[in-house]
């Protein structure tokens, strides 16, 4: 399999030279939600009318960043909503996406200490070809009117829902970019199950960010 949607989100979030991650909380939520959407693309899960994620095919897909998520979903007797999974699986999903980028040779790991005390890890770019191709694809859809495939549409929906569109389009005007992404979301989905998964993840991400922000401000 090519890079998963979660890996693509992670790639876009890492600064090429320093390897510093941008918008860590939002990126983590988007990476986790991306795993659910990817499984919907592969026909393994669906979102019911009540917003709960159900497994329709528990067969592993052979992708280390996705099979643990599918196993966790399949291991529950009762379905849970996307928000529950986005919050519950965030740490593991982020670590898995990062490890796969390392395994693919797209980033490298640098271990440092802040003030000589606190250990940190950063992930600068090692091979920029995949990210460049990804950015070109996204730009062709958003700026040039190209028709997106299902995966590209899903990625744009994830970025927009998490408020991360600036990672892919740092120079774009905010309001104009929001309008364009909203337009793309309307009538773009050929597979309803994927559309429903993206919408569920968008709602879960928005709700989680709002909850964390409210706690921070109190």
UniProtKB/TrEMBL annotation:
Keywords, in A-Z order: Golgi apparatus, Lipid-binding, Membrane
Main location class: Golgi
UniProt topology in membrane: Peripheral membrane protein
Membrane spanning stretches: none
Pfam entry (one): GPP34
Compartment(s) of residence: Golgi apparatus membrane
InterPro entries: GPP34-like, GPP34-like_sf
Keyword presence, Membrane: yes
Highest taxon of source: Bacteria
Protein name listed in UniProt: GPP34 family phosphoprotein
């Amino acid at each position: 399999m090519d890079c998963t949607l979660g890996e693509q989100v992670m790639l876009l979030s890492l600064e090429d030279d320093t390897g510093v991650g941008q918008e860590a909380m939002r990126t983590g939520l988007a990476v986790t939600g991306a795993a659910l959407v990817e499984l919907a693309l592969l026909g393994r899960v669906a979102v019911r009318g009540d917003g709960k994620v159900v497994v329709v095919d528990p067969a592993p897909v052979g992708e280390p960043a996705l099979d643990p998520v599918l196993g966790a979903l399949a291991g529950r007797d009762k379905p849970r909503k996307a928000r529950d999974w986005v919050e519950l699986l965030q740490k593991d999903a982020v670590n898995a996406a990062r490890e796969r980028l390392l395994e693919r040779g797209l980033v490298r790991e640098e271990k440092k200490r802040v003030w000589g005390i606190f250990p940190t890890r950063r992930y600068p770019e090692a091979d920029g070809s995949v990210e460049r191709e990804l950015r070109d694809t996204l730009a062709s859809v958003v700026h040039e009117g190209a028709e997106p495939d299902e995966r590209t549409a899903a990625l744009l929906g994830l970025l927009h829902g998490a408020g991360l569109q600036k990672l892919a389009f740092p120079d774009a005007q905010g309001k104009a970019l929001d309008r364009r992404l909203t337009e793309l979301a309307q009538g773009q989905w050929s597979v309803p199950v994927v559309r429903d998964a993206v919408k569920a993840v968008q709602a879960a991400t928005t709700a989680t960010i709002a909850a964390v922000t409210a706690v921070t401000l109190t």
